[in-house]
Amino acid sequence: MSPRDNTAAQLLSPFTSSENDFQIDHMTDQLSYNPPPKGHVNASSTPVIPIWKPGSTVTYIIDIGTLPGPVNVATATIALASAAQRWNDSLIPVNFRPAGLGEHATFVLKYGKRAGNVSVLASAFLPDHFDPTMYIYPRAFTTPYLRDMDKVFQHELGHVLGLRHEFAATSETHSVQIGCSNSLSVMNYHSDLNFGIQPSDVEGLEALYKLKSGQFFKGFKVEVVDPEQ
């Protein structure tokens, strides 16, 4: 059984990479940029900015078997649904919703224990990543993060939409900028969880999703991904 197939046996209800970790420590809106995979060669080895098909719906399921107990399952389920609704309420070009029973989901949320940097709360993926899994880590279930877990998921869903960190231009490779800098961006690292989606985040996403498949932006080729395929 695929971990992304929503079945009653695996899931409570029908309700990832290191650069996309979220730590407590936007968008100038940094766009994601994935270099060609190792061993992959094309005529130009063109770097890619992946986005979802505008107007599409990104669905998710929660692998409850990985979460530590029913209380934490309920907490994560409610928090992810709340974060998804916050993005949806912003009228972005892509919607989030839980996958229906028997429906193949775009991504799965799992609980994991992270080796190394234990300050990380969660991690996610970019639209064209080979492993569409969002992870929530043990620290997110401790005080004070547990109460505001939806803020953590707002940040991670930003990555799922194709956004990099606010500071990516200076501290991370493989990114390009669209829009203006905003230190309050949901895609920044913050000293606490008193933050959320900003108008600049939404404006940056709108500009990003106006780009067409095959179009070049600052030397990077736009790749449109259909979440239903």
TrEMBL record:
Residues 48-211 form the Peptidase metallopeptidase domain. Gene3D superfamilies: Collagenase (Catalytic Domain) (3.40.390.10). GO terms for molecular function: metallopeptidase activity; zinc ion binding. Coiled coil: none annotated. One of its GO terms (biological process) is proteolysis. It holds the Pfam family DUF4953. Transmembrane segments: none annotated. This is Metallopeptidase, catalytic domain containing protein. The lineage of its organism: Eukaryota, Fungi, Dikarya, Ascomycota, Pezizomycotina.
